[in-house]
Design a protein that fits this description.
Blueprint (H helix, E strand, L loop, with lengths): L2 E5 H8 L5 H7 L5 E7 L2 E6 L9 H11 L11 E10 L9 E8 L5 H16 L8 E7 L7 E6 L5 E2 L8 E2 H7 L1 H6 L9 E5 L5 E4 L3 E2 L12 E7 L2 H17 L3 E9 L2 E5 L5 E6 H8 L5 H10 L3 E6 L2 E6 L9 H12 L21 H13 L3 E2 L5 E2 L1 H6 L21 E2 L4 H10 L7 E10 L5 E10 L5 H15 L4 E4 L5 E10 L4 E8 L1 H6 L6 E7 L5
Parallel strand pairs: 4-7, 4-14, 19-22
Antiparallel strand pairs: 1-3, 2-3, 5-13, 5-14, 6-13, 7-10, 8-9, 10-11, 11-12, 14-15, 16-18, 17-18, 20-21, 22-23, 23-27, 24-25, 25-26, 26-27
Helix pairs in contact: 1-3, 3-7, 4-7, 8-10, 9-10
Length: 544
Amino acid sequence: MPLVTFKYNDFINLLGYKIPKETLIEKLPMIGGDFSHEVNDEINIEFFPNRPDLTSVEGIARASRAFFEFKTGLQTYEIATSDVLLTVDPSVKKIRPYVTTAVVKNVVMTDELITSLMGLQEKLHVGLGRNRRKVAIGVHNAEPVTPPFVYKAVDPDAVSFVPLAKDEPMTLREILIKHEKGVDYAHLLTNYDKYPLIVDANNNVLSFPPIINGSLTEVTPYTKEIFIDVTGTDKKAINYALNIVTAALAERGGKIYRTTVLDEGKKIFSPDFTPLKQKLSVAFVNRILGTALQEKDVILCLKKMGHNAIDAGNGSLTVDIAAWRSDILHEVDLVEDVAVGYGFDQFETDFPKALTFGRTLPNHNLIEGLRSIMIGIGFNEVTTFVISNQEDEFQRMGLERRTMVEVENPIGEEYSGLRMSLLPSLLKLLRENRHHPLPQQIFEVGIVVDEQAKNRYHLAGLKIDAKANFTECKSLMEAVFRECGCKPAIKEKSHGAFIEGRCAAVMGKETEIGVFGELHPKTIQAFHLEHPMIAFELAADLLQ
């Protein structure tokens, strides 16, 4: 969970009201977090990742104003209009298509604000931005540059500028190779022959999203006017990020100015703080929470969570949701806010009304038995991630690609789908432990997900040793079969991950239930390993 650190006195100044530190530490986690620790004047609280608007002290102060009933309801900010214009060039559409901007003036850059702003930016990059793939935020000193701005794609070697933390100009390609941030996020642009860039009217570079800003617009303690750009691949996400950042600066006394983005001839004005309206059934609230709240009670709870709500008749409410609340996706999310506003400590506890007896799942004894067998023949048990990727599952294993269950918004390319085999995960683990002495022999009994999106239990094992061979692997398999009390047939098999002629299939009554043999040198090298290896993988739930 994101850890937010802030000074108590700074928080009180932002809040605008007095609240004892002890009360704050006790009650603040009820909004949706966990108190971590306190050092001198600094309070550390971990907030749930579904509330990115609470990843800064400014957002916490705004939420606390309503939650502690100093000033309930929807917080509003005055937004003026500027003549700042950013034009989106069609060249960037296939790379990073969306951008939104804002200007904030009259900013007083205190140490607390600089620290908070940097922390907020990074937390939004990781959470809401999925490590900058979905959202990347640029915060600039607006004074050295001249609008209108242009967001375009350029040749990696055609433009050079001085990036943050450097003294010499670098081309975009050089930044991806030599700059620390470039190295970290180069994978976001590897599939493109042109890279996105934001420049001003004089072709000064503001930003190379999603990698790094230019040093020309570096924010300093003397900055009074800030220009914010947010680029990404998700239109809703970039608008939420912009709203969160600009609202945080407004909490510090900055004045927000609306800007214009000209995209395909259409003018888009941002930031847009228009509340989202959603219906909420009081009966639905009571059914989910097990309460008997009246309309006025639900309205009060919602106002404590920073919403406005009015009675819409027929037992329903119309709720105004703040433009920075990216977590409200469904009516049930408002029900959660009602529960938080009501107070989890107000819910009565009770004992279960029925006495039941638990029992193990049908395959529990089999799975535990397989673990005991493998430990008994000298293997060490490991547990690896169920999430994998196409390259590890198929390409490195020398197999043709199949349909795997994919993650809709993966945190990175390495975790983009659900594994269909255990062996790639075990090979990756051995790769991380290749500095340890040989032999190494590991196994896992874990879940894989087949093409029908069904969970299946598999047993897989690897042994890496200079003398590992097919005969040893076959004897290990026979030992497992003997201890399980089954006698499956074994026949020759051709498999992309194994050496031809040193691989066998394990046959059940009607179908193939596993494979074992010597791994092919190409497979071993694909996972950056060197020594001979034997491997096996069986469908554990069919091994009866």
